[in-house]
Amino acid sequence: MKRTSHFLIIVGIILTVTLGLTIDSSTTWALDSSLYELTDESSYLEGCYDPCDCLLMLYPTLQGTFLLTSISQGEDVSLFEVMEVDWQFIQEDETILVTGSGLYQIDSEQHRLTLDLLVGNAPVRQFDSGFVPLQSAFPGISIAIALNGFYCYDYVFDITALPAPVELSISSWGSLKSIFR
After folding, report:
1. In the chain, at which end, N or C, are there fewer CB atoms within 10 A of the end residue's CB?
2. How many domains does the chain have?
3. What residues contact 80, with CB distance under 8 A and at least 6 apart?
4. 3-state secondary structure string across the chain
5. Are 87 and 7 within one domain?
6. Containing domain of residue 12, as a range?
7. pLDDT at 165
8. 123 and 88 within one domain
9. pLDDT in tens, the chain (181 residues)
10. Do 65 and 117 lie in a common domain?
């Protein structure tokens, strides 16, 4: 029995140091940061919103990942840092890369995503959702961010994302075998 508890303590220390994993009071593993993947429902839109009248182009090929890291967890509001945005979409047979970072805020009724994004060769610009009602239960995220506040000609990322699966496996001889997403 002592050998097993020593093993668990050693594995906990290794995971804490190398992966930023922590052990909560119920001894379950919790990630300080979570890798998120965009789902097939994510898209990039460009064109006119009210009150303007022009064609709205939909690019449904948006895919990629980002890292969500907890900054503060309060009773009313939780704040997360969004890092390592790594997205891409296809526009007129060209793959457009999107990188950046920002903040995600959530409470029991609403949320807000603000990202500074480098889209293709354009300069870094800030995309913001404003505070909007929750559309899905956290940890899922479903939110649209716009460059110009969803007004007239705008550039919009419609984001639906879920935490990427994490798998830890222990070999039959009791050591950590593999860690992958």
Report:
1. N
2. 2
3. 68, 69, 70, 71, 103, 104, 105, 106
4. CHHHHHHHHHHHHHHHHHHCEEECCCCCEEECEEEEEECCCCEEEEEECCCCCCCEEEECCCEEEEEEEEEEECCCCEEEEEEEEEEEEEECCEEEEEEEEEEEEECCCEEEEEEEEEECCCCCEEEECCCEECCCCCCCEEEEEECCCCCCEEEEEEEEEEECCCEEEECCCCCEEEEEC
5. no
6. 1-30
7. 83
8. yes
9. 444 333 334 444 444 444 444 433 332 233 478 999 999 999 999 999 888 888 888 988 899 999 999 998 877 888 999 999 999 999 988 999 999 999 999 998 999 999 999 999 999 999 999 999 998 888 999 999 999 999 999 999 999 999 998 754 444 555 444 444 4
10. yes
Q: Which amino acid is at 110?
A: Q
User: Residue 55 corresponds to which amino acid?
Assistant: L
Q: Same structural domain for residues 112 and 137?
A: yes
